[in-house]
Amino acid sequence: MKRRALLLVLALVILSVVAYRLGTQNSFHEGASQLMQMLTRDHLTLPYPAPPSAEQWQSMNATDRLADVNSRLLPKLRDELATKKLHLGQPAFIRIFKESRELELWLESGDERWQLFRNYPIACFSGTLGPKTREGDMQSPEGFYTVTPQQLNPMSRYHLSFNVGYPNAYDLAHQRTGSLIMVHGDTCSIGCFAMTDPLIEEIYLTVEGALKNTSTVPIHIFPFRMTAERMQKEQISPHINFWQNLLPAYDRFEKNHSIPPITVENGLYRVP
Questions:
Q1: Which tens digit of pLDDT belongs to each residue from 141-153?
Q2: Which among 99, 100, 131, 132 could bridge 224 via Cys, Cβ 3.0 to 4.6 Å?
Q3: Would you state the pLDDT for residue 10?
């Protein structure tokens, strides 16, 4: 672990020298951010056999990849869910918090109420707090998105992945550009959310199971946990109006663990 940290620090130093010479300050900031995330990454150990090596994995087709993941995870995953009186195939819901680098996976336990199954540390996302606005800005998005079965990608270069659905109707209303924003494996990211290979396997299978019985899996992506105290600290942020537009949906779920219907009207998110 110490050796890995030293190597990352060395890489940061090299990156800073290269960025200085080339005058690429944005590249330096992005690289520095990702290295710091890797240095401070929390680890979560799941009770499954390790994935195959990267070389083995890349040689597999989609059918073989999913067969491998199912054989290693399914028996124990069902046990993990059962400990919380949940089961594979229930509707799923994801919340992401960029500041604390957390991905929450919720399952509907009945009466349209949701129960937290797991809180995963995000290995890395790119950019800073604030929405994605254009292709190539290195930003991970914020807002309300959905995953459909067509957005699952078992042949991802980053182990397994699914597209979050950026840009949505709100983004398009604001002429925001970009594409292929994923939740995926590995530990590095450019606009996406990297979860590590072991964690994405459990997330992917749970989302895939939900999509066999429901048409979509909602994903709500927030800059931070939007408490009154935390919002007060951001009153001079250039993003404060956008974040205040996200707040009603956040508050509604916090209050009763029920996902509110969200529409886009006149360029704003609306929560009835």
A1: 999 999 999 999 9
A2: 99
A3: 52
Q: How many helices (H) and strands (E) does the chain have?
A: 8, 12
144: nearest Cα among 213, 66, 246: 246
Alpha-carbon Rg for the chain, nearest whole angstrom, is 19
- 197 within 8 A of 100, measured Cβ to Cβ: no
Instruction: Name the residue with tokens 């890395």.
Output: 124
Active site residue 124: no
Q: Is 3 exposed, middle or buried (0-12, 13-18, 19+ CB in 10 A)?
A: exposed
| Model confidence pLDDT, tens digit, residues 208-258 | 999 999 999 999 999 999 999 999 999 999 999 999 999 999 999 999 999
DSSP state of 151: G
pTM for the full model? 0.86
CATH number of 48-270: 2.40.440.10
Annotated catalytic residue, options 29, 124, 159, 184: 184
184 is catalytic: yes
Question: What would the pLDDT profile of 85-137 be if each residue is shown by its tens digit?
Answer: 999 999 999 999 999 999 999 999 877 789 999 999 999 998 999 999 999 99
Catalytic residue among 43, 87, 159, 192: 192
Q: List, in sequence order, every residue forming a beta bridge with 95; answer none if it has no partner.
A: 104, 220
In what side-by-side order are the strands of the sheet with 92-97? 113-121, 102-110, 92-97, 217-222, 143-147
Angle between helices 62-82 and 197-211 (to 10 degrees): 80
Preceding peptide of 91 cis, ω within 30°: no
Rounded CA-CA distance 92/208 in Å is 9
The rounded distance, in Å, linking the Cα atoms of 176 and 166 is 9
